[in-house]
Amino acid sequence: MLVAVIVSTALLATEYKSPPRLDSLRATLSFFVDPLKYLVDLPTVLVEQTADSISSYRTLKKENERLREEQLEHQARLLKFAALENENIRLHALLENSYKLGEQVLVAELLSVNMAPYEHIVVVNKGTRFGVHPQQPVLDANGVVGQVFRALPFTSEIMLITDPNHAIPVQVNRNGLLTIAVGSGQPNRLVLPFLPGNADIRPGDLLITSGLGGTFPQGYPVAVVDEFTSQPNKAFATITATPKALLDRNRELMIVWSDSTPVPLIAKPTTNNEETNTHADK
Amino acid sequence: MQTNNAAGFFRIVLTMVLAMCLRILPWTGDMAALNPDWVLLVLIYWSLAVPERVGIFHAWTFGLLTDVLTGRLLGQYALAYSLIIYLCLKLHKQLRQFPLLQQGLFIFFCLLLSQLLLFFIKNLQHPAQLHAAFWLPVFTGTLVWPLVYGALRYVRLSRRMR
């Protein structure tokens, strides 16, 4: 008895003080436990697969057509984006700014298990075996979902942006106002607690990631502001926002590796020299 | 009993695995808050029924596995489970004599103690603002105890019959 208490208290203390130290133990134990997560998820997968296999030819064809149209549309838009991106890089280079680009994406599927109530943490079926590591941003097709909280060999835990312990640096897309969006603990709601009552923000504003803090790449949509109330007797306004990502409905998520090496700038010194040389020649 | 020792152990492990699956079952919405601590209930049953087989070590091991399963700080479920199973082992002779109602009361206090410990550890980690619903699993756990008791009794006795 005493041994059990001492050992578990020691474990608690170690992990409390320095979490990474016990990662290997957790990974080893997860070999026994992770199959359970897949087992619990199995009924959902089966239902989905049978639904797929018994859906009629016509619905499939319709869906296929719709997807093809969508893809065409996206492709056309991407063409324009490629040009815009290049232009943006050039402009950034002129301003001598670094510009992040090149993000690699891994599609992971949600396992429908519930780890603990009151915590907005979900489990996906990709882990360190696929190179997933903690603090990676996670997106879906509509916006930011959260970040990898803990990566085990075969699964990883993702903290959603609505978790009360999660905060994400954001920027109002309309005017570049920087702030932080904190999870509210309620599904599909974020709060922005750090803006004064006279801040330039209104309902309908899109919040995008600001790229500060280094975890989330810049420019992904996070949420839309839906309420702004400022009380005269309080220093900060109460602002709530709804996440863009379908946090509770999507099964497919994207884990992102952002390439953080800055774009090589235009070799300014050499051009300067050449210019001065040409000037001198003249 | 010794002849089917391995089979009996296998059954205990199987029910534990089932309990762990129930623990992470994806309840929708508010139902998730009601999900009782199945692992602890099953552990309590086995420690009362076959105390010579399920001891603190097992409780500790399954607690540690539950920690990993639910992504907690390592050791908190291990600590809570081993404490409660210690109590159960101490008191198992009286507890077996108790009528179901009194037993239910004991289970209620066990679950409450475990939840209190978890609450304490959680508070150490980061002073959290918890719902009152945090305590709901204690009540639902007590309510499902007769069910667990009946089901596991069936499992145990069907083993003996073979």
Describe the structure.
Chain A is built from four helices and twelve strands. By secondary structure, chain A is of the alpha+beta class. Chain A has a domain of 78 residues: Rod shape-determining protein MreC, domain 2 (Thrombin, subunit H). In chain A, the strands form two sheets. In chain A, strands 1-2-5-4-3-12 form a six-stranded antiparallel barrel. Chain A has a six-stranded antiparallel β-barrel with strand order 6-7-8-11-10-9. In chain A, β10 and β11 form a beta hairpin. Chain B has 162 residues and is an all-alpha fold. Chain B has one domain: Arp2/3 complex 21 kDa subunit ARPC3 (Orthogonal Bundle). Chain B is globular. Chain B starts with a helix and ends with a helix. The model of chain B has no long low-confidence stretch (mean pLDDT 83). Chains A and B meet through α1 and α2 of A and α1, α3, α4 and α5 of B.
